Amino acid sequence: VYLKENIRKISKIQDYHLKNHICHCVRYHTAILQISKDLNDAFSVMMLIHITWTSFIISVLGFGIIMENNYWNMLRFIMHLGGWLLMLFLVSFYGQILMDKSSDISKEVYDSEWYRTLPKIRQHLVLILLRSQRPIALKAAQLNTMSLSTFLGVLYSAYTY
What we know:
This protein is mostly helical. The protein has helices at 2-8, 15-67, 71-110, 119-131, 148-160, and strands at 139-140, 144-145. It contains 5 helices and 2 strands. A hairpin with a 3-residue loop joins strand 1 and strand 2 (144-145).
C-alpha cells in the first residue's frame, strides 16, 4: 500500500525531487522482494507440510463426523474441523491479499503518467513495472502458492479421500 501511494505521487512531484523519490520506491520495492524471498525460504516447507497434513486431518474429521452417533462427539469433531479450516483459510486468504496487492503495483506504475518523466526516471519505472508483473506470493515448497485457489484445492483433495 505504501509503495502504491508513493508511485501514485510520481506525477505530482517536481523533476528535481523525482529521481530521489523513484530511487526510494525502487529501494523499497527491492526490500519487499527480499523480505518475501526470506519468508518463503523460511516457511515454504512448513507450508507444504501444513497443506498436506490439513488435507489429511480434514478428511479424517469429516469421516469421524459421518460415522459418529453421539451428538456431543460429533460437535467436537465439527469444532475441530472448523479450527483446521480456519487456520488454512487465514493463511490462504492473506496469501491471496499479498498476491493481489503486489499485482496492483504494476497498474499503479502504468497509471502514473510515466511518459511525462525524464528517460532516466523511465528506466527505473520500467524496472519496477517488469518485476511487479510476477506477483509476490507465499509459497508451499515452490510447488504451490498460498491462495484461495489452494484453499479450495485442499478442500477438494480432502473430499476425494
